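Human: My hope is that you can spare some time for a protein that puzzles me. I am handing you a single protein, as its sequence and its fold in token form. Could you go through the record with me and say what the backbone is doing? Take your time, and here it is.
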Amino acid sequence: MQAILGTIRATGAASFTWAARGVAPDIMEKAARRVDEELFRLVLGVLGLRERHDRLGEQERAYAEARFNLSARKGGLALGGCVAALRGGYLGGLVDLARSLRAFYNTFLLSNLMPGADAVLQEVRQDCDKDAKLMDYEDIDALVEGRRTGKAIQHDASCAYNDIVFKGLIETWGPESNRTACLIGSQGKASAALRAGARLIETRLQDGEMRTNYALMMCLPQTEHGPDRQCTCGAAADANPQEGWHAFVCIQDSQRQAAATDSAAALVAVLQGLPRVTPFGRPFVNRINYRPDEPTFEHAAQHAGAALIDEDAQPVAEGAAAPHKRRFDTAYRTNVGAVFKYVDFKKVATINNGNLKEACRQQGVAVEAGDKGKFNSYRKSISNLDELHKRGVINFASSDYCGMISEGYDKLLKMIATDAYPGDFGSNVDVDGLRSMCVSRLRVAVGAGIWRANHKTLGAWAKRAYPVGPVNDNNNNNN
């Protein structure tokens, strides 16, 4: 399934938009809408989500289709988008043509050959933000004179169209709704898992994991068995919708540690193949369903100078581990200087009982709160935590089910890439691009780990909520 969807992503809408370059939008619009609709039906069929989609109301189905066509930059799946690319493809194709002709006819004006092109440009400019690059060009001839390539012009125009759709979805669903929060939370790098391929073990996803997370992004039901119903934890039916958002805040969720482990395993899988860094503990090669070895606080005290708070000075709560026995989720050692760096992961819910309004306004609210909570917890056991955290020796890495990672997690990935590819003679300049490619690989692997965790959480919730008819999915293991 992952390979099929990757093929559709590379050939479906992309082939159509390339063929439509330079053709007037009104000529191609009907065909573009048809291609977008058929791609949507095709992907729903491949994922086995058609019945779940049809079960929704008209407004919910329109939302799912919009998320399918939206760019990943705006929280979409980016599998369609033929209509979004029409105006940009037309302008980009004409600009490239005009520049080719001007090499032989330096007095050529595109406005004389295609008088309707300027009207299309003005439509696009009306949709653009005031600081958009297309706003620098008042007419089509000025666009030809400018330095924007045809491909860049097509991208700018498509972004303007996607921005309008994005704002329309927020206006339709309002500033305090789960669908708005999911849309906001899935923007940009949060959707890195969409680029995951089956070739590498750290980014390989099973069919059930793909189905679960595509449904999660389009806000489709996570079960095949009926309408909303009361959760076994006592949550009422209206607080336990079939889209599965309650699964991540349910007090009976038994997958929290497993969800954090998936992120750790994905990161370690990449770490073991990088130069100049060595993961803590035993290596693994042929499986991702694996819990990395966990270094203790005592190990950090011995190898990184962590100052553990005296147990006698601060009594340990009943049932809690003593400071020296507490564990991080993983660690790695740099080959230069043999410095150990420790990581603790946390998986949080994008939407919880108290942050819906804020999550609909700003991306990453939950993950930053997760890092802050971890920091305050560790400060009770390590007196010099502020210093170690600032130096990058102890790191906190929170993620949510939309794929967003915390600022600390992002810094960790960049630090790993810098440790693996430090540059020549201590330079911070990424001359050959190896560091940026490493960061990209790490982000995609972490995104795939988040998707595996989502599948576990939602699968366990579905079996609790629908014990008679659990989700029809035999891909619950990741071996």
In short: Residues 2-173 form one domain.
